[in-house]
TrEMBL record:
A UniProt-annotated Pfam family: HTH_18
Entry keyword set: DNA-binding, Transcription, Transcription regulation
Limits of the HTH araC/xylS-type domain: 147-244
Highest taxon, organism lineage: Bacteria
Organism: Lysobacter yangpyeongensis
Name of the protein this chain belongs to: AraC family transcriptional regulator
InterPro entries named among the record's database cross-references: AraC-bd, Homeodomain-like_sf, HTH_AraC, HTH_AraC-typ_CS, RmlC-like_jellyroll, RmlC_Cupin_sf
Length: 249
């Protein structure tokens, strides 16, 4: 890993991770140049893909886990005070090919190239302020009983246990389980599992898995059922999600 005043450059090996920590004096734009990772930021889980970056405000606790093919993570640093036109809360930023190229250039700039670095930072700030924000996160639970359920689903999103069976795993009555899960996530378990499958599908497809492989891994009986779910949730097909490939560095 290389760290300088402007950027962290970290090629994470498959399944490697950083435990929960925070950067009190800087905000971060965490971008996957290739591969993917999952970030636990505050009360939500986020996926970082080659076309996306996660914005992490200063002082926000977060943990990072690399995807199955590792992750070339490029994290741009924004020391305090952060400009007012940048987000105040964690979010996913859609990374254009232009913004991806700027981040790559910043990573290549020499430490003594002060004017070049300043120009790149100005352009990155401007591009970031104009970038679309995406809703690509999932609420996390804090109750240890509910964590048994969400941890099991993250380990195997194809698990088809009934709501009653999940309540039993949490050692709760069905009614209490439904009420508590809704209170912590503002959604039902079925919706949460579907949302998890969408995020994991994006990660698997970005890492090069086929549509059929992804569909079966996530518990869909046929690829067509999986394609229908992605079209319904994202307004596109799995094949179109990454048809153009990641942004060119």
């Amino acid at each position: 890993m290389r760290i300088d005043h402007d950027i962290h450059i970290n090629d994470m090996a498959a399944a490697s991770r950083y435990e929960t920590h925070a950067h009190d004096h800087e905000a971060l734009l965490s971008y996957a140049a290739s591969g993917s990772c999952t970030q636990l930021i505050g009360p939500r889980l986020w996926t970082v893909l080659p076309a996306h970056a996660v914005w992490i405000p200063a002082g926000t606790p977060h943990a990072v886990a690399a995807g199955p093919r590792g992750c070339r993570l490029r994290t741009v640093r924004f020391p305090l005070p952060v400009p007012d036109d940048l987000p105040a809360t964690p979010c996913v930023i859609e990374v254009s090919p232009f913004l991806a190229a700027l981040i790559a250039e910043l990573g290549e700039a020499g430490g003594d190239e002060h004017r070049r670095r300043a120009a790149l930072r100005f352009l990155i700030h401007d591009a970031l302020a104009r970038s679309p924000l995406l809703d690509l996160s999932l609420p996390r639970v804090s109750d240890p009983r509910l964590l048994r359920v969400t941890d099991a689903l993250q380990a195997d999103p194809s698990d088809r246990r009934s709501l009653t069976a999940w309540a039993q795993l949490a050692d709760m009555s069905r009614r209490s389980f439904i009420r508590k899960f809704q209170a912590e996530t503002e959604m039902g378990l079925q919706e949460w599992q579907r949302r998890l499958r969408v995020l994991m599908a994006r990660q698997m497809l970005a890492d090069g898995a086929s549509v059929t492989e992804t569909a079966l891994s996530l518990g869909y009986a046929t690829p067509s059922a999986f394609i229908a779910m992605i079209r319904r949730e994202l307004g596109t097909t799995p094949g179109q999600l990454f048809a153009a490939g990641p942004p060119a560095p």
